Amino acid sequence: MISNKQINVIVADDHQIFLDGLLALLQDVENLNIIGTAINGLDVLELLKSLTIDLVILDINMPQMDGIELNKVIKKEYPNVKTLVLSTHSDPDKISSLTKGKANGYLLKNCGKMELLEAIYTIVNYNTNYFSSEVKEKYMNSVFNPNNKEEHIEELSKREIEIINLITQEYTAQEIAEKLFISPHTVNTHRKNLLAKLNVKNLAGLVRYAVKNGLAD
Questions:
Q1: For residue 46, how many other CB atoms are within 10 A of its CB?
Q2: Measured between alpha carbons, how far is residue 207 from residues 81, 172, 178 in Å?
Q3: Per-residue pLDDT tens for 39-75?
Q4: Kind and range of the H or E run holding 146
Q5: Helices marked H in the chain — which ranges?
């Protein structure tokens, strides 16, 4: 799918590695211009003051102003600018918040290049919202089966959720310990308890669980 229109895009994500990867992925796409990047919502708003933008691609978890709040401000102050959420989160509550905030699209970060381009062109060229099949399934399941949630989430402590989140960001046990001001032994104990509690075999299983349940940044 190729666009005949020049599309000006801002990409916002607090992970520089992801930003760099997305820029590399899209830099040679005809008529698609990435003319600004940001690591938080406030930076996006500063860019919008001086640039003519068609689309903002944004993550949910960002410092200073997250994606949910950023989307609300864009829709209020720049109603002609489209928004496309690109996130690891598939939490139905976040999806619902963004749809109510009139976000124009929502993809998970494991999507392919072709689906990303399809979403961009659908939103900008055809003025039609685009939500991936995984996102729609999560949302519809929460609407029609409100009690069918991952049973383990309520069993996890705040500390355990913090540790899972840091594991998905590839922090070592030592780095997690320093970040949370606990000992490496305590981190390893939490990790063993998590493997048993969630009935997964290894760290890869923990990461899959975190992504599935919206616990990964």
A1: 12
A2: 34, 14, 21
A3: 999 999 999 999 999 999 999 988 889 999 999 999 9
A4: none
A5: 16-26, 41-50, 67-77, 92-100, 113-125, 133-144, 158-168, 173-180, 184-198, 203-212
Backbone angles phi, psi at 129, to 5 degrees: -70, 155
How far is it, in rounded angstroms, from Cα 122 to Cα 176? 41
Burial class (CB in 10 A: 0-12, 13-18, 19+), 39: middle
Cα separation, 75 vs 107, whole angstroms? 19
Closest CA to 200 of 170, 167, 174: 167
66-84 as b/e: b if 16+ CB within 10 A: bbbbbbbbbbeebeebbbb
How many Å apart are CA 46 and CA 75, to the nearest integer? 15
Q: What is the pTM of this model?
A: 0.68
The three-point CA angle 217-71-158 to 5° equals 30
Specify the residue for token string 């139905």.
92
Q: Decide: 56 and 101 in contact? Cβ < 8 Å.
A: no
| pLDDT 10s digits, 4-13 | 689 999 999 9
